[in-house]
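Attaching the record inline, Q. Sequence:
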Amino acid sequence: MRLFDRVENGEMPPDAETMSADDRTELLKSLEAPLRAACEAATARNGRGAIRRLTRAEFENNLRVLLKLPHLDVRDKVPEDRDAHGFTKVASLLDMSRVQLDGYLAAAEAALRTAMAAPAPPPLIEQRFTGTDLFPELETFGEREAMFFARNNRMVSITNQQFAAMTSA
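Structure, as predicted:
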């Protein structure tokens, strides 16, 4: 059904210039039933995508992000992932056994203990810096396009006179 959605959103041909909105609607009406039938037949034949657990690395990275602990190391508490031809993200291999569940729970508990024991983050400090001495002169190897000043995350063009006034102060 992704194909249908892309045609409906105008992401796929025909272009809006070559096909009117009424013609696109007719095309979508004619495509909807066959595409839906093909999708349902494929799902009945192959089943839906396999449900899988997170790998050790994915689980650790998710805990790092959720708990804001960038140096968290709990990967060794979880049993190693099986692999198929060097790949560890094969859904059929990422099932959940009792041993793996115990490992994931132990890793989560260790991460939570680390998060509770961690000191409060330092207060946020906001500072402003003025970059008037970034370049000794306005002419560099990359010409003026190689350097610029910014204000509110946007480029600010300056003239030689403005630069001279800034550096003379």
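The mean pLDDT is 79. The chain has five helices and two strands.

More tomorrow.
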